[in-house]
């Protein structure tokens, strides 16, 4: 019940069109309806060309197609689908109808885009996505593709892990890092990349631990703890392997 | 060795003022000196009225005073000191010399400011600092005071934990949340506040787990894991009780 | 050996019908035989139309059929079988004999009912089963079907997770929550749903952490710790993914 | 803003005493008050002679007295204060004013009651509070005193741990267990008591792990995991040492 | 109520010295005594000069004295008190009455014996108590003194840790190990002693991890896990620092 | 180098048959050769009809057959093979030669015996093997078959878990427990069985946690911690699922 | 840009062949090349006949072949490939071209060598690789083959675990241990081997925990913690199952 | 019994001064002394001016003095005492007798040297001790002083953590790192220093995690896991805060 409705109701009470009892009842029911206002800005930012996102894991092929169709039917230009299996993407392609303009799928990152493919990068600056090794690239691509989908220019800086720090500390890479608006630092094993980049950069660094590694990596726990304890300022952490979350947050910051 | 110096050296080589051997030597030594450029922007952003920060914990009273004096002598207007014991603050006051304009200390958050006290809030928007309970306030004040020190307008929203969600979901609190540029969500125990705010807000949320709680809270681990697994987008996490880190990162984002 | 029997025995001793040696023996054996009375009420509550439950996991197809037949042969009207594989359900159907009136199987929750299907909901009030996301539904259905099997009216409130709190805080959902007799709150990832519902509701909340999630969810540990540390009163927790346990306990409370 | 106030306001609108603009403003500010309806039953159950609870830990002596006075001034008959240090209780006694009718403090459980002391046990049945050992008694008394404060009849069954199972499995103790409406099973070390009682009883069992023990007890973790994995049905768990939570939940169930 | 008493009572009933009503009453009160038959051998083994044990930790000085007096009054020759603080031992000495024949206290192991001091070692063979280092000796003495109290011959083999394996593998130490009936292997840090002794000995080895160590010793966890994974056969483990438990079990085995 | 050899060498030195230099060399080499005496008793106890054991896991089919043949060829009557896959057992049967008298394989426990099958139970008393549930039986059978192989009389008491404690506390089961010489208590989930049996029995109890369970059972960790913290005396613990280790140790104790 | 190139450039500047502006540009781009000086010794030691290493896990068959070809084409004599699947090795053999002189693959350790096979052992002394059991051999062979590839003489001492310490403490094994320059101690389960060898040897011991074991071995955690807490001096630890890391480090020490 | 003594004994046997029986007895008692040969090089390296080490923690003041005196009396020139409290050092000074030439104590590292103070650095090259922050210096000094005591030249490179990587990557620091023979990398929090140095250096790197940090540092666990997972080759790890172990191992490598 928005302001206008309350006014209207009060008028009706004044005019005797609505009894006080009825009005009390309606007003008591209202507060939660008002709660709908809770995420309008969020909806707005997503709606303007980027659209809602589907987390593919744990959803059936049918569900994914159905949700995508509904979103596109409601005026959304494009839909991002994350953690989509190859098999689901094939099912999708076979069951696309003309209402879905286009569909692309990246097997490495398991990210798909349904609908209008090209998106303008209206974000303020550039988002640098850096990885410690080549095995971190699937997570990195989930982050990069999410950020691109949400209208950001993304620079990829892969395999610049600290074991060979010269790969990171050289004019070219440093230029990217110095001019970035946000950096996503993705690493498994000991996760030291986040701290090193955090110590070099002058912008927010979103650290993504990955489950890459073995033994005492404990499925990403070592990298996670390492990143949480980063002695560099300006570093925050998302869940293990959460490329989407990092890309989404980076886009938020880049659109400020 | 900056560009100008290299040019100068080449001129000397051309003119025969410097031998090729000497020049090779100098150039070989240069790269790391050049690395000094790595954090100029960082220094700049800090230098302009906010200044360097001293992490007080594990430093002797003497060390803190000495570092603060050095920083202020090098033209920094004010120095933030975090995790400073009351005893250290008293020692500081007793040993201040006229070169330190002023000194304030907040016992709750253990945060002190030495030098010029007032700082203009030149950040873009407002940073909301929210806590789940009253016991989280010391961490919150570390975050808030850090952000204020770095030139941000801060809105405090304390004790709005999810156990009584109406404290959070009401017009006044929601208005603050909806109009924030960055939100710092601080909570111990089950740390659900971050997810709820993340689901309501449309800006980056920095989650700070606190060590508040007992039993299976395991010193903040429960809140930490909860926040890392937040199903809301736009949420990232810093270390347990790391109010400073959250305030610093929030300021970074707010100055974009 | 109840009081009357002891009296009788003493009489026999007095009368010389039983020797002291025999009496000593009987008295020494008695206490444990008496223990048989330990669970009569429990048996009663189960026997009246609901019947014994079979935990299917780790049992062979043959064992399940055999136990079900025995239970039904002993006068139980229906048997609940949980964690039953699809393959086991097919074996069951193929090997049913006329003594088993009917058999239904739900693949999602892996719950089956053998015997008389319909059960009257004689519980006092309604049990609300709420989930944070759609992936939690299999656990939720195990809980719901268990509660229904035991004679309760169940209201399902799925996918009302805190990431979009308006899904929970609206007139319709709130009405269900406000009028529930017991609520089962089921969530994976950060498990915040239990705290939020616990803060809103005025009845016992049984929290069920699920293994839904990845990375730092650690197979349900994050949700489990979160729920154990709930700052809301009236919340208790069962094992990860333990839908049956929650449904069973909810029924107990609802039959008070 | 309660129902009566809304009615009053609508009357004034109808009568022209309040303009529609003013009424809209007042109603817009109301939601927080309106949100109060979210837990009316909770308030009711508490209000009727039992009153709000103060969690003393982490609160200053002054804060506790202040909150207690405010609650009692708002018509609450008695206030429960948990985790109150002895020193805080002494401060309380010294700073009590005549508006606080009485005050009692139990050093063992650190529980205090301010205001009217005696409470009628209007709960349906009895709550049995059982402990494994004597060291668990402080937690047990927190639970018992909470339940009594909330209007329940409590039976104490202390030191009936499974190491000497005859202490539990005898006519007298079994009678209590069999006739209980809710049982709170409190144990540290291996926490087996909850399973054994859960296997014997026919009512909900709330298990409270305690931090009693050493070595691999890991501060209550062993008991916590043990209780969560209880093979007995009808058992749920609260946080380590959370006597209050158990007592509160038990009262909720006992008032159904 | 032991067998003899029951017989006596039955005689009285038979002879009419006791009415049936009185006898029923006595027998109904007996269950605890009757339940005693559950552990007759245990009682026997304890009763014959060794007596019941008091776990001192968490008990008040008064409680310890009181329990000790009661046990000694009931015919027990001596009482073992473990985890007794020095202060408690002093209180004991001051409050001893003539009914307690003697009292000895060992500050290192915090073990005391009240009553008749000397006990005959009627155990079959010898129990060897070995420690990895000198810091493990308090735990070792708890084990050794417990075993001696229960009537065993104990051989101490301290500071024979694997870092200098020649301390263990020499004729003298090996002779003790080879001729032992049970061995208690006590070690902190990496706890390797249990495996090495387990590999050398031909008798049951009870491994006791201790909390000696720092860093990744995690309060005894490293030693505990190490001992549980011992590749030597015949090794079992008790709780961290549980010298009493090891001594008690060793005595049980040694009296077979 | 045994005593006799040293004497011989000294004689040779005395007689000048061996030079002092040679003798010094031989004596310096000796100590480790002497170490061979380290496990003669162990060998003896195994050799007398029971023989060496093969841990099948991680060994190829060929290796198992080869080792078994070698052991039987060296005079051992029978060989126990644990953790042997069904496939390995079939390979064994196909590749047996006449030198192997017989071969039996139990699929449930994955235990095989090669050579002479029947073994006399020369152990002193009976070993009771008890399990909490039916899913623990494979581990229990590994323990039972190991104990039988090593010459012990074994009583099986399966599915006597504490959730239905009357299954354990009844005349028949109690008689077995009371007359046992050693008890092996095997349970997953909360592992309370060990404590309950430990509290009832008067003989050493070897607790075996199993990986049976789900969720917060954490692969046997819950049962392991529970058993390590057992408040009953006389209980010690072996590794999760280590049926062999329990059976071996029980046999050691039963042959004392 | 190596020294020679810088000299050349300076000459050109001097001679006027290159303008100062062009030279500045080239030098600014150079740092990355200059950074190469950071690990010249590393490169040297690798380059001289041993060459760069490929970590096969997570790389496609094509990538492995491609990288190997490139390395061999750049003058490296041989390439070590670790964690290579059998299938990858077969693909390699099929796709080898004449530029790759030879290829060998060891299925057990998953280690391959491409290029010139034989390598001279120019290391100072011998590296002993010892394992606790036979299941640790794959990790041991990864270590041994890495060390041999890098030019070291390796002595294998397998299956000398502490459960039968005479296997380790005998003249032959002790001679190897006493004369080693570096020892790699590899063990799963309780990992005691490292401590025992560390206590015997007089050279650096590199401990490698393996994931061999079950239950409370927790995938190598038990061995890892055990080794980190080794009471023997001179022991350091690498990641679980990290045979390559141990072999590489041992070679480094052996070439000092 | 050293070689010389055995020779002497054999001479006596040859000469008839000692009977064969007596000699056998003496030789049988000898092995323990003979076992001493197991670590002759260790003893040698220690004996030559450096001497045995005393781990002060957990030892009484008296014990430390006594052991030091005994070692110095047996010809050792100097004794290193680690983890010595200030109070113990004062007791030492007060109770020194003329036989102890000198005594020095460093409060920061809690390291003392008793006996001859100056030691020649006969190690091959230099050991670099680097720390991430200033709080790691106590551990670093324990390492440095241990290495110096054992005859090594030590270079200190403190506070070069990765948060400001230019502190590490500059000509001066790099020169030290490049020319080191062994590097000890000491860091708390995220422990990234080890990886970065491992990636830059060409010599063995011994990583020492410290307990510096808070929250998710979990007492050094984060740094420990980070270091164990180092993606740089040539890195191994010792226990948390184990400065002595690192210094000792570094000396071993540096004396190769």
From TrEMBL, chains A, B, C, D, E, F, G, H:
Full protein name: PurE domain-containing protein
GO annotation, biological process: 'de novo' IMP biosynthetic process
InterPro entries in alphabetical order: P2CMN_synthase_LarB, PurE_dom
Organism: Butyrivibrio hungatei DSM 14810
Domain PurE: from-to ranges: 125-256
GO molecular function per UniProt: hydrolase activity
